[in-house]
Amino acid sequence: MKSLILQFCAICCWLFSTNATSTELNKYEIDVWADNWFAAYIDGKPLLEDSISIKTERSFNAETHQFSSSLPFVLAFMIKDFKENDTGLEYIGSKRQQIGDGGFITQVTHLNSSSVVGVSNSSMRCMVIHKAPLDSKCARQSKPIAGKGQCRFTAAAEPNSWKMPTFDDSSWQNATEYSSSQVRPKEGYDQIKWNSGAKLIWSDDLEKDNTLLCRLVIDGKNDTSPTKSEHTHTEKHAHFKHFANVITSEDSTYLNIESDGIPEHNMMEGITSWQQQVPLPQDYTGNNSWKIPLNPVLADIPMLTKDHFHKGAVAIAVNGVPIFNALNNRGEYSADIGELDKWGGA
Fold it and tell me: Is the pTM of this model over 0.70?
């Protein structure tokens, strides 16, 4: 009886929190493109599945489907990037052997009004349930074996009831948005006229994360503008206030971040491949402070950190510590070859 009462309360909370006051059925159309495969569910029930099997190595296509539902409803997606096995690799044994990369985009249109009522963006919550390989060097193995050496992987079971509207996904990570130059969407993508607010998404690792579970709430608020970067003064500075060595300010154009570049925690523990470098205090103050645009604009020609920015810091963390390219000056992932300490610093 107690279990039934809790379930009833959870459903009531869902209904009231989304201001659902109508059970009127409306007609919608959903567009989906995935690299490489997806299955979609609406309030726990199957809605749409990629027509091309995940076993197909190069499966790129868009799917469009019409359905009826009342507001609010939750769309749950299982999204998979192709992998031959648990190594996470594709084209195994050939000269093209490599780690694949994923990508996903969707939009939901209310057919009567032709308005887009839901899109994929960083507000979606996602959970990674398969990650491989854990070491990028696995792709260089002549005979990669899943679970062995550099080809280890992690896998998790689907959480119970994750497709249901009452499921609590607050502990899941927000999706990461990617540009089309990063995902390089192929067949089917250009067949859809995508709303400007619909973004290509994945987890924060476009290559090693192979299977995702993601959720999208459609509540009728019809906010499909591009992901908003505007935040209040308090919100922007709150991220840094926990660290005594970080001072923030702002002018009409930039958020200014000052620090000495040194974290409060220990450093250099766990490094197994030393580049003969040690962390030193930095003078990130005054004119040399970090300046983050208050209203950033996407570059006309985005540049990947894989091919650029191999010298000097590329960003700053909320604790005032500079962030460098994940690749060292030889083009190797520093984390994979032991150049980082147990806090992720060099």
Answer: no
